[in-house]
Specification:
Blueprint lengths: L1 H97 L4 E9 L5 E6 L2 E6 L13 H24 L7 E8 L2 H4 L9 E7 L5 H14 L1 H6 L4 E6 L12 E9 L5 E6 L2 E6 L13 H24 L5 E10 L2 H4 L11 E9 L3 H14 L1 H6 L5 E7 L1
Parallel strand pairs: 5-6, 11-12
Antiparallel strand pairs: 1-2, 1-10, 2-3, 4-5, 4-7, 7-8, 8-9, 10-11
Helix pairs in contact: 2-4, 2-6, 6-8
Length: 395
């Protein structure tokens, strides 16, 4: 009886253990399934969040477009800034067009093997110039003062001729007389300033009435580069016709010459101390410009004056000067010669003088340069009109 009971108990126990095992197996199977469902739920939740965030992303699209708008605004600002820059560039270009358009005139003078005599070269023309009595010059041919006065006289003649053509003035002739007062002792080395202290210009303009004469004089004083240069350095008196020029300054020496329009357009004849020579007008006023012109004379005057002062200084210093060649350049705006329009001043704005020497050293050259700057009446006059750069080359 007991045996049967025990056997029955064992079977029941086994059945219960089997049921527990099945239950445990079912639980283990259920946990992965729940994890999968949980993961699926998380995924669905993420997708839902992303979908919910999509409107926010679309709302941020204007932020992505903001750089494009900023770039557009920047481009507009750059264009606005570029406009004044372009206007400034155009204005600058206009100013440059109105800026001085300088031309350079040149002449040179070379000492010859005859004391007190030099040969001037200008644009293919060559002519002899003599030194003056205060420094023991022969003074037979033209001298530097003759050339300076001749440059002013012929410039006046050619401006008068041109104005008559422009304004239909029945001008029959043009004659000009020029005088200049100076202290010639300064050239000799007395220490006095030898500059031209006053100049007198007298014009005869037959055929022109009073108003036409006034127009000619006005053009002469504004379009002649010799007058506009010298008027900065000294007083220039202008008289016409029956008007009498002022008397020469007492105690000073007076240089003088005359010039007359020839029967060939743009050509004049100058007379100075028995010498006669032809001068031509310049291209800005339709001149032939074949012979020497007024600018050639002014630059040649400065070149020969320097040459002769060097020669004389070498003699006084007992220095064996073997040769001197002087080169002179002058800068001007020729538009002022062609017309009064625009108000361009045709004056000489700067001079450059290069004096090449042979036989002297640097110290001797420096002393001769100082003598030139003190004793040459052309230099001491022109230095008040424009800067003059002087260089001495010694060999």
């Amino acid at each position: 009886m007991k045996s049967k009971s025990s056997s029955k108990f064992m079977r029941i126990t086994l059945i219960l253990l089997a049921l527990v095992a099945l239950a445990l197996s079912a639980c283990q199977t259920l946990e992965p399934a729940q994890e999968v469902q949980a993961e699926s739920a998380v995924a669905e939740s993420a997708q839902s969040d992303e979908a919910a965030q999509e409107p926010e992303t679309n709302a941020e699209e204007p932020d992505d477009a903001a750089p494009a708008e900023a770039e557009s605004e920047s481009t507009a600002e750059e264009a606005a800034e570029a406009a004044p820059a372009e206007e400034e560039s155009s204005a600058k270009s206009a100013v440059e067009d109105e800026a001085p358009q300088l031309a350079t005139a040149k002449a040179s003078a070379k000492l010859t093997n005859q004391p007190g005599r030099a040969i001037v070269s200008a644009r293919g023309n060559h002519f002899i110039v003599d030194s003056v009595p205060p420094i023991e010059g022969p003074n037979e041919e033209l001298n530097p003062l003759d050339m300076m006065l001749g440059s002013l006289a012929t410039c006046g003649i050619f401006i008068a001729e041109r104005v008559a053509q422009e304004e239909a003035i029945p001008l029959e002739d043009v004659q000009v007389a020029v005088e200049a007062d100076l202290d010639a002792s300064g050239v000799a080395g007395s220490g006095a300033d030898p500059r031209l202290q006053v100049m007198r210009v007298h014009l005869d303009l037959p055929g022109a009435d009073e108003d036409q004469v006034s127009s000619i004089i006005d053009n002469f004083t504004t379009r002649c580069p010799i007058h506009t240069t010298l008027s900065r350095a000294t007083d220039i008196e202008i008289t016409v016709g029956d008007e009498a020029p002022s008397a020469a300054t007492e105690g000073l020496n007076t240089a003088k010459l005359t010039a007359q329009l020839s029967n060939q357009p743009g050509r004049a004849i100058v007379s100075a101390r028995g010498n006669h020579f032809v001068i031509d007008s310049v291209p800005p006023i339709e001149g032939p410009n074949e012979e020497r012109n007024p600018l050639d004379l002014m630059l040649g005057a400065l070149a020969t004056c320097g040459t002769f002062i060097f020669e004389r200084s070498a003699q006084e210093m007992d220095v064996p000067l073997l040769g001197v060649t002087t080169y002179v350049e002058g800068d001007l705006d020729p538009r002022g010669v062609a017309s009064q329009e625009g108000g361009t001043n045709p004056r000489l704005q700067a001079f450059r003088v290069i004096i090449e020497t042979e036989g002297i050293d640097e110290a001797q050259g420096a002393e001769m340069k100082a003598q030139f700057q003190q004793r040459c009446p052309i230099y001491t006059t022109l230095q008040h009109a424009a800067p003059i750069e002087v260089s001495v080359v010694t060999n």
